[in-house]
UniProtKB/TrEMBL annotation:
It comes from Albugo laibachii Nc14. Signal peptide: none annotated. One of its GO terms (biological process) is DNA recombination. InterPro entries: Retrotran_Ty1/copia-like, SH3_retrovirus. Transmembrane segments: none annotated. Keywords: DNA integration, DNA recombination, DNA-directed DNA polymerase, Endonuclease, Hydrolase, Magnesium, Metal-binding, Nuclease, Nucleotidyltransferase, RNA-directed DNA polymerase, Transferase. This is Putative polyprotein. It holds the Pfam family SH3_retrovirus. Residues 58-109 form the Retroviral polymerase SH3-like domain. One of its GO terms (molecular function) is metal ion binding.
Length: 140
């Protein structure tokens, strides 16, 4: 996840925490029909809250923290999920601080910034050899 997104080293710990959070939604090996959350809490996990790591968007600001003339939302980057509640960890671009917000709107219409990572290992998994019947040459 981190090499494909070309994540800055500052956000690597947030990426690892998000990956660990998402791992709890993956099916177990020994129990093929259940997830870790389903096993521990006996409830199906809610997948509608999952978001793309380090995606740009806007987080809503609480009414108690703004005046009438302030904006209702601020630009942010999605970093992960809060540990103790159903909230999101976001990086507020204006103050350059990590904050927790209950509601965010991610911009899905912008182009992704994923980087194609090419594996440099020359491992050959399967090789097919075709033999030409007319000549005794082998084509690889």
């Amino acid at each position: 996840m981190l090499p494909h997104k070309n994540v800055d080293k500052v956000w690597r710990a947030e990426g690892v925490n998000t990956a660990a959070y998402i791992t709890n939604f993956v099916k177990c090996r020994n129990r093929s029909n259940t997830t870790l959350i389903d096993t521990c809490f006996e409830a199906k996990p809610e997948l509608s809250q999952l978001r793309v790591f380090e995606f740009a968007g806007f987080a809503d600001m609480d009414k108690s923290k703004r005046s009438n003339l302030d904006a209702k939302a601020y630009p942010c980057l999605f970093l992960g999920y809060a540990n103790d509640s159903k909230e999101y960890r976001v990086f507020k671009k204006l103050t350059k601080r990590v904050e927790i917000s209950r509601s965010i709107q991610l911009m899905d219409d912008i182009e992704t910034i994923y980087v194609q990572v090419i594996d440099q290992s020359p491992t050959i998994i399967h090789e097919t050899v075709f033999i030409n019947d007319d000549a005794s040459e082998c084509q690889v």
